[in-house]
């Protein structure tokens, strides 16, 4: 490998990291330099190279890089696989530490997202990742956010050390099904990946118990763990993806499952599809994920919203509207009487809007105009709600209801 300057390495390894979607920085403990040792550096707070967004809307800037894009594995879908014809580069531990500190001092970033290809062995690579985090925390008292990608095949003790220094850990399940993983990444094993995730959850729970008993017990990955699935590289439909996501949430208490639409890569493997799935499919999966996590929908509910033939969520309407159209007997619901769980299932009503409705109806009976003031749009709500001055009558049962609530038709451009 020819000698490369640090800026050249950064150009290669920052570009190689763009395929990893799971870099949100929300959920960790708030820290700043004032709460550290004298001369502490960094913060997990403030406004913000990669931008992630916290649930409260804050923009968090992260230095998102790979330690190296060299890899001994040959996963078909990965641009950094062993047989791929890409330019290779590798940072030293000290180079990553210096980059992180220098970028922070220039107010470019508030944290680090670090992943890597597998070099020499899983244990050796994991040791390098842990050494970066350890150096930042112990030698420089870095108080900013650190997210490390852990390696399932690495020694569990190394993963445990990573959790003592990082805010969030993530292990990618890569593909929705074990069959797809065996076909496209034969050197990876689904059971080992899930075993590593289970071990991570156990360590978080044990350290959480220790914190409750002993105030000075160390924190372990306070922002939890996450994972990522590639969508469209194999034949898995949305039903399989939703079922897998629900299973991962239940068994491993994940903070997030990320979905990444497969993107054709240079020098692609012959077993991969020739074109990417619609990006809107990725968006619909994120919407369904949100419905499971915050709206009380089960995996069975979301499967009922998929197309019976393709097994995928409709692209022209959102999953909540698709579910409601197939369960019209549950609507309309009375905005003045319905419980929170029923209101959350109304298309067009978000969590904040439902909370506003519940607070307002304690003071007065709500009219349709009142609901309109508490939400962003009343158009989608009208067929599914009853207010003190509004009853949809036969509107909910209209045959063309989907067409009336879907996106308006638009003229195609001749030279698009």
TrEMBL record:
Cofactor: [4Fe-4S] cluster
Gene3D superfamilies recorded: Aldolase class I
Positions of the Elp3/MiaA/NifB-like radical SAM core domain: 61-288
Keyword annotations from UniProtKB, A to Z: Iron, Iron-sulfur, Metal-binding, S-adenosyl-L-methionine
GO molecular function: catalytic activity; iron-sulfur cluster binding; metal ion binding
Family annotation (InterPro entries): Aldolase_TIM, DNA_rSAM_put, Elp3/MiaA/NifB-like_rSAM, Endo/Exo/Phosphatase_dom_1, rSAM, rSAM_sf, RuvA_2-like
Superkingdom of the organism of origin: Bacteria
SMART domains tied to this protein: Elp3
Protein name: Biotin synthase
């Amino acid at each position: 490998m020819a000698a490369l300057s640090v800026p050249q390495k950064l150009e290669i390894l920052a570009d190689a990291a763009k395929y990893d979607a799971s870099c949100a920085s929300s959920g960790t403990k708030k820290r700043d330099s004032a709460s550290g040792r004298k001369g502490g550096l960094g913060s997990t707070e403030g406004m913000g190279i990669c931008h992630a967004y916290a649930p409260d809307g804050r923009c968090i800037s992260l230095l998102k890089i790979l330690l190296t894009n060299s890899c001994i594995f040959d996963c078909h879908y990965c641009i950094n696989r062993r047989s791929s014809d890409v330019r290779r580069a590798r940072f030293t531990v000290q180079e990553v530490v210096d980059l992180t500190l220098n970028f922070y001092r220039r107010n470019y970033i508030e944290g680090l997202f670090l992943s890597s290809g597998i070099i020499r062995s899983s244990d050796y690579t994991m040791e390098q990742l842990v050494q970066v985090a350890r150096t930042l925390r112990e030698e420089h008292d870095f108080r900013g956010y650190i997210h490390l990608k852990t390696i399932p095949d690495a020694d569990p003790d190394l993963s445990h050390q990573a959790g003592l220094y990082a805010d969030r850990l993530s292990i990618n399940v890569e593909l929705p099904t074990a069959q797809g993983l065996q076909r496209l990444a034969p050197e990876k094993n689904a059971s080992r990946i899930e075993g590593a995730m289970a071990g991570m959850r156990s360590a978080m729970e044990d350290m959480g118990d220790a914190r409750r008993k002993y105030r000075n017990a160390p924190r372990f990955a306070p922002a939890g763990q996450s994972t990522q699935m590639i969508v469209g590289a194999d034949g898995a439909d949305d039903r399989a993806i939703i079922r897998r996501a629900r299973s991962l949430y239940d068994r491993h208490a994940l903070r997030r499952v990320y979905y990444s639409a497969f993107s054709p890569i240079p020098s692609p493997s012959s077993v991969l599809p020739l074109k990417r799935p619609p990006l809107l499919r990725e968006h619909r999966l994120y919407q369904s994920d949100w419905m499971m996590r915050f709206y009380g929908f089960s995996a069975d509910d979301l499967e009922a919203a998929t197309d019976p033939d393709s097994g995928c969520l409709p692209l022209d309407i959102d999953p909540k509207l698709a579910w409601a159209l197939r369960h019209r007997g549950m609507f309309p619901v009375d905005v003045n009487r319905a419980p929170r769980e029923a209101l959350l299932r109304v298309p067009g009503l978000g969590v904040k809007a439902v909370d506003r409705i519940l607070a307002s109806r304690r003071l007065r009976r709500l009219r349709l105009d009142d609901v309109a003031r508490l939400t962003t749009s009343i158009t989608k709500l009208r067929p599914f709600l009853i207010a003190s001055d509004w009853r949809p009558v036969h509107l909910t049962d209209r045959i063309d209801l989907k067409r009336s609530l879907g996106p308006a038709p638009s003229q195609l451009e001749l030279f698009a």
